User: What shape does this take?
Amino acid sequence: MLKTKKVGIVGVGSYLPKKVLTNTDLEKMVDTSDEWIITRTGIKQRRIAASNEATSDLAVAAAKKALKKAGVRPKDLELIIVATITPDMQFPSTACLVQKALGAEKAVCFDISAACAGFVYALSTAEKFILSGAYKNALVVGAEKLSAITNWKDRNTCVLFGDGAGACVLAPVKSGGIVSTYLAADGSSSDLLTLPAGGSRLPPSKKTIANKLHFVHMQGNELFKVAVRAMSEAADKALHQVGLSCKDTDIFIPHQANMRILLAVAKKTGLPLGKIYFNIEKYGNMSSASTAVALCEAVESGRIKKGNVVVLDAFGAGLVWGAMVIIW
Ligand code: COA
Assistant: This one.
């Protein structure tokens, strides 16, 4: 183990597809209104990938920027982890497709399926591999093409999601770095958010297609309550593990599922709104890519400064949730 060193984020990058789908556009597709969507979710628009763009394409575009920022050549990469619930295919892993596109032939590759908490789960996994001495660097990507699994006739879900990718390069750092992680899961509530068909339980058939089982199914109300509790608990636990609390946080970067969830988490934890990074109005919920893109934007806009206490916090289908404390 690299006992004396910490692992830090040495480069970030993001990619958002060009096409913007506004709430006004959605008003023409389903029985909804700009007013309802903004009031209930905080979302004004979302990005939609082109029909010839798959998740790995979004991931590669974000990864190239992160590698450039980090000054790491693809051929020197030792590990690639892609967090996604919308892989290009069931197999091979999207990470292997990213490896091929980057020319990172030395890297070990795999995907992590932890839905909206995928980026935090993947960061933590990569950190442990580097701390163990197994690999000297890692590329972690949160990438999703949720538009491919969205039922565009279901107003309960189609207004919520968007496509995008965020990436970061991890390596040992001399100061700062990841100081604490808290991860959790509760499979007993797995039915609250699912993509029911297409796997071994319900292989694709005319019936699964007719019943729209290849799209996201969600019990939004139930999830809302658990999300607030879980995200607040995760932030508190990750901070307490290293003797910190929410008041020590300089910037809080949450998964962006619903503005009202984030406001409730702020209230429960005592986090001032000025310390929370919000981008939900621009992109909606991009699952694993939400936290990744938010982190990237916070770095690139100068919101995160050297020495800052940065808290990532995410919650999603599984149920899974987790938080990470990074000294920047
Ligand atoms: N436009 C207009 N009306 C809509 C609508 C839409 N897009 N979607 C739902 N409605 C209607 C419902 O049909 C319902 O009507 P009814 O009272 O006549 O039955 C009403 O609005 C209220 O629906 P409800 O589901 O109670 O709304 P809500 O306030 O809970 O908001 C979510 C719905 C999905 C925005 C909210 O529950 C949420 O964000 N949940 C958590 C999502 C989440 O965390 N996902 C997992 C983590 S990634």
User: Anything to note?
Assistant: The mean pLDDT is 97.
